[in-house]
């Protein structure tokens, strides 16, 4: 099956976790993929392992000029874009009494400013009938101590996606958000938690999931494929929880 034959997809945060699994699946389904990340060495490693029609673009989504560069390199190589998957994100932990300006700016610049500016840059090059996907989180629905700024950032993205859904309606562009629950990716190792606390936190998350486990990046990638493909042609403006039921109980 080639559900994305000749479609052009741009994916941010695609050197790791959910973004990488999605890039692999999109390539398998016939898409031309722009794999973006902020570390050249990680992109080089990815280049070695993937097959198909893709390029890698070094871009730090928290910087305005890098979003411009990302879309320019993508369109220079492949022409107009069909699928824009704004997935890059960070989730450093900081209980409210420890939040500082650096933490706030880091999280909001990456998780909110980045996707919004990339969308702005991409819109003139996005085909009518194309699709924009954001990676949100179920933190929009459930409270987890220490994730205050992260949760606020994903809430902001959710609000933005609603407005965008309306703004692009005359062009038939669908805008949807994937809201993962706990997914086994490298993000947990980047939260700044000691190993034992990380393990305890992970076990705690898994216990809150009706299915009793973390999800996999591949399970999210399959959802991204569904939402990006014609199979989801009448799905627009939703935030879809992929969380083993965690947000529902
Ligand atoms: N895993 C979960 O449980 C979970 C749950 C809910 C939502 N999410 C969301 O899912 C998305 C993907 O996360 P993941 O779990 O797959 O984690 P991940 O493996 O750490 O992937 C995140 C990707 O985003 C990249 N990134 C971070 N800051 C960036 C920046 N300023 N510019 C460009 N790229 C940047 C990372 O690059 P580096 O490799 O250089 O760090 C990495 O490639 C995030 O938006 C996250 O908030 C994850």
TrEMBL record:
GO MF terms held by the record: glucose 1-dehydrogenase [NAD(P)+] activity
InterPro entries linked: NAD(P)-bd_dom_sf, SDR_fam
Keyword ATP-binding: no
Keyword annotations of the record: Oxidoreductase
Residue ranges crossing the lipid bilayer per the database entry: none
Record flagged with keyword Oxidoreductase: yes
Broad class of enzyme this protein falls into: oxidoreductase
EC number: 1.1.1.47
Pfam families: adh_short_C2
PANTHER family tied to this protein: EG:BACR7A4.14 PROTEIN-RELATED, ZGC:101858
Protein name stated in the entry: Glucose 1-dehydrogenase
